[in-house]
Amino acid sequence: MGIRLPLLLLNAKQILKKHVQSDVPKGHIAVYVGDIQRKRFLVPISVLNHPTFMALLKRAEEEFGYNHPMGGLTIPCREDAFMDLTSRLHSS
């Protein structure tokens, strides 16, 4: 019984890892945005090098460092401003 429990935990971790990985499509990254209530957005990695998005990443680094409260990349930005920015980046 002592050997089976660690094996069960290992299998559970592998299942959860596969579920989390499949949750984000290839070529995208999940980010959390919002002042009070954070909402999750999937962003194409192609926008990460855009100067405007890099400015948001710099603000995230200044505010959170590498300790993001949601467990993922948290962007310090209002949700409506982020949606406006990403729609402009997608159309350009």
TrEMBL record:
InterPro entries: SAUR_fam. GO terms for biological process: response to auxin. It comes from the Eukaryota. Pfam families: Auxin_inducible. PANTHER family: SAUR-LIKE AUXIN-RESPONSIVE PROTEIN FAMILY-RELATED. Belongs to the ARG7 family. This is Auxin-responsive protein SAUR21-like. It comes from Cucumis melo var. makuwa (Oriental melon).
